[in-house]
Write a structure and sequence with these properties.
- There is one protein chain.
- This protein has 7 helices and 9 strands; from the N terminus they run E-H-E-E-E-E-E-H-E-H-H-E-E-H-H-H.
- Strand 8 and strand 9 form a beta hairpin.
- By secondary structure, it is α/β, with parallel strands linked by helices.
- The strands form 2 sheets. A 7-stranded mixed sheet has the order 5-2-1-6-7-9-8, sandwiched between helices.
Length: 201
Amino acid sequence: MSRKPVHLAVYDTFADWETGYATAYLARAGYDIRTTGPAHEPVTSIGGLKVQPACALDDVRPSESSLLILPGADLWDTGGDLAPFARKAREFLDAGVPVAAICGATAGLAREGLLDERDHTSAVSFYLAATGYDGGERYVDADAVTDGGLITAGPTEPVAFAREIFRLLGVYDGEVLDAWYRLFHDSDPQAYAVLEKAAAQ
């Protein structure tokens, strides 16, 4: 089955560990992962990885995508350099195409007003409160939260973040989704057997 690609935002100081579970297993499920930068020039992650974006943000269209993933980055909290990515997230959500944001990207969405009327989470509530947003009453103290087409998670929850992405896109569900989470979050050896059985079917 042909699937629209998943767009992974990349920018200087992006947190390269936060989206690895999600992108690896989305690729295994048949999704083309397209890195999307501010422009076409290479960017450098917080871990020193140099990434050549496959496309520029201005060229990304929600109608041609399954999902926009926004990782955290130091730049989310040091100025407005990444504001265009938050505006692109608004464009996606307005078009009914999902967005997944983790760590500092949640603060970018808060500044854009995208969390004011949606349940969400982040690192801690006061981190988002410092943005001056109006969504404090919708903050949920959870590993990851999905509200409609928006997924949010804190920086310590890359596995839960991936779980919510898989659930939203229908990559895994039910017992298999639970087993995947238990394997990578809890190192549960019994979960591996469930996944092996599912893969053999």
